[in-house]
Design goal:
8 helices; globular; nine-stranded mixed beta sheet; Rossmann fold; alpha/beta; about 35% helix
Length: about 270
């Protein structure tokens, strides 16, 4: 039992995969018993989404856990981290409490699931029983694209929103084309809208805004129709590897705004 004189902000246990839901219920009960004994309001069990995050290795698993822990205060949720390469059949379940400016506290859940080598094809089946009903599902794929599209596509079919970071992709042109194909395939099979976001797209927002501002002044918009070629150059910080992804995405955005179409086939 939890010590009622020291109300924890986090409670964590390692349990068999078959005991995840039951253990979460037990942890919620224990935390609230401790809070009541200390004269505090119970934790509000509230979630605005289910977040499913894929981590390709132990380092990324730890990074995702820290990142998600920081998000749960503003966006209470059930987060499921798929730890690729982690062996065994034991999951780590955790509830984190966040204060609500003296009016109480809200709790969020973080579940870390092992994905033994060779089990990538079963990712969707692994998380489906843990999804919260009637809540939007965010799928966060961290790292490079898998070599087999069906590995990723199974998760994409679950998500209402899918998140990537093309800075982690191994093959700039090929991976962006593959991702675009997966997006089209996903939207063709989904009745409701499926949204996608790339962190690199967010990073180039200042580029897009500055470019647009060049043509904001009265009369400058007419110059856009005269453009028939654009050269894009990018710089690399000392010690960093060259990464053209942002330039590719910027070129795609610019072409879409100008109504240009590709002049060559893939």
């Amino acid at each position: 039992m939890l010590d009622a004189t020291m109300i924890p902000s986090t409670a964590q246990e390692v349990v068999p995969l078959t005991k995840i839901k039951a253990t979460l219920s037990t942890i919620w009960q224990r935390l609230n018993e401790a809070r009541r004994a200390d004269g505090k309001k119970e934790l509000t069990r509230s979630s605005v989404m289910t977040l499913v995050a894929f981590a390709p290795d132990a380092k990324e698993t730890a990074w995702l856990h820290d990142a998600i822990s920081g998000l749960t205060g503003q966006h209470p949720s059930r987060a499921i981290i798929l730890a690729d390469g982690k062996q065994g059949d034991m999951a780590t379940v955790e509830i984190r409490a966040h204060s609500l400016d003296g009016t109480g506290a809200v709790g969020s859940e973080i579940i870390t699931l092992p994905v033994p080598e060779g089990n990538r094809r079963n990712l969707a089946a692994l998380v489906t029983p843990l999804l919260l009903p009637d809540m939007p599902i965010f799928v966060w794929w961290s790292g490079g694209l898998p070599t087999r599209d069906e590995t990723l596509y199974g998760l994409l079919e679950l998500g209402d929103y899918s998140i990537f970071d093309s800075a982690d992709f191994d093959n700039p042109k090929e991976d962006l084309i593959r991702l675009a194909d997966l997006m089209v395939k996903r939207r063709q099979r989904q009745v409701t809208h499926a949204a996608f976001n790339d962190f690199n797209w967010t990073r180039i927002k200042p580029w897009r805004e500055l470019t647009a501002q060049c043509f904001d002044a009265e009369g400058r918009g007419t110059f856009l129709r005269a453009l028939d070629r654009v050269n894009i150059e990018y710089a690399v910080q000392p010690g960093e590897d060259a990464c053209p992804f942002q330039s590719y995405i910027f070129a795609g955005w610019l072409a879409s705004r100008l109504g240009w179409q590709p002049s060559t086939t893939r």
